[in-house]
Amino acid sequence: MTETTHIVVVDDHPMLREGVALTLAAEADFKVVGQGKSADEAIEQADKFLPDIMLLDISMPGGGINAVSAICQRFPVIKCIMLTVSENEQDVLDAMKAGAKGYVLKGVSGSSLVNIIRRVEQGEAYVTPSLAATLLKEWHQDDADKHGTSLFGALTKREKQILEKVATGLSNKEIADKLFLSEKTIKHYMTNILQKLQVRNRVEAALLFYKEEN
Q1: Do both 34 and 117 map to the same domain?
Q2: Which positions ≥6 away from 67 have C-beta within 8 Å?
Q3: Which structural domain range is residue 76 located in?
Q4: Which of 2, 65, 205, 207 measures 20 to 30 Å from 103, CA to CA?
Q5: Domain count for the chain
Q6: What is the mean pLDDT of each run of 10 residues along the chain (214 residues)?
């Protein structure tokens, strides 16, 4: 039996919030357990339902980033995804540093959002690809400079091949299918890659790849 993913949607625009909730509720393994319209309500919903996933807007009353920071500190089991119109460089950086596991621009298709939520729940971090260049400029720039080429030299040919595909936004399953390997094998490779590059997640690894290639 498939486990149900419990989700809370927080946005101060009722039509958008309810539209997202309806889209997610249509998935057999998704259940929208709560909704809110402010940072305070987001924290209340987190405490009340302890959902698997929370979708939050940045510009809602009280600030979405403040909500994410508080939720990630108090309830680290919850995975927060920003769903926003903001392409502001600082917003992206602040959200991810506050603990968000995803940063998605509004306007994304329903099917894409469902896929992103599944990937985040499985432990991946996701940032809308068009924002990768923005993150590259600032995200742990000092660390990126410090890591340099030497760490990439420690990667095997296969690990570099996998990292290249990660940088294009492919999931572990998609990479496995393309390379005719099992998803478990790809996860094992990813663990090695993250350790060798001294980064915390696949987003940071992809950003270092972009820097190395450009």
Answers
A1: yes
A2: 10, 39, 42, 43, 56, 60
A3: 5-129
A4: 2
A5: 2
A6: 88 96 96 97 95 96 96 92 90 88 93 94 84 59 51 82 88 92 90 84 80 67
